[in-house]
Model the fold of this input.
Amino acid sequence: MGSQKCGGCLSGLLIPLALWSIIVNLLLYFPNGQTSYAFSSKLTNYVWYFEGICFSGIMMLMVAVALLVLESDNCQCCQSENCSKKYMTLLSIILSGLGISFSGYCLAISALGLVQGPYCRTLNGWEYAFEGTAGRFLTDSSIWIQCLEPAHVVEWNIILFSILIALSGLQVIICLIRIVIQLSKILCGTYSVIIQPGII
Done:
């Protein structure tokens, strides 16, 4: 019962994390609060992977809701209570694994976007001003002035991509904990996931 309550709390935490991922990803389309750059496609290419909106956002919301339904007292996957618990464990592990995949995708794309740097206008025109620095620009704010437009786009990208990394990282951790909880039920003998003949 305790582990079930713990799992429910963890699943519930995924929902606000997913909603914040959607919001943060949307903000990346409007550097400095301006909409013109999104309409003219003058944004870093990694924002078009929809990592926070689709994967760490909508897909993770679906995973969280499915996990909450599985953990509810009204969920019965089959007639036998023991059988129902077995299926719930297996489905929970599968859903948590999907959650790791979705949030891991967001984490990886956000990290790539952070290291690549923003697409901005420099003295040479629109380009990735810091693409060849291997992320060293992140610790050298003196070169950020190379980006003339959009205003403060370097800070905008660093902050928002960093938040996405943190949010998706937390989602990965929560899903990993959920898998550990479910595996502990199996390994510690709470119930076996091997369905015996005639149990249904």
Residues 49 and 109 are 8 Å apart (CA to CA). DSSP finds five helices and two strands in the chain. The beta strands are 119-122, 125-128.
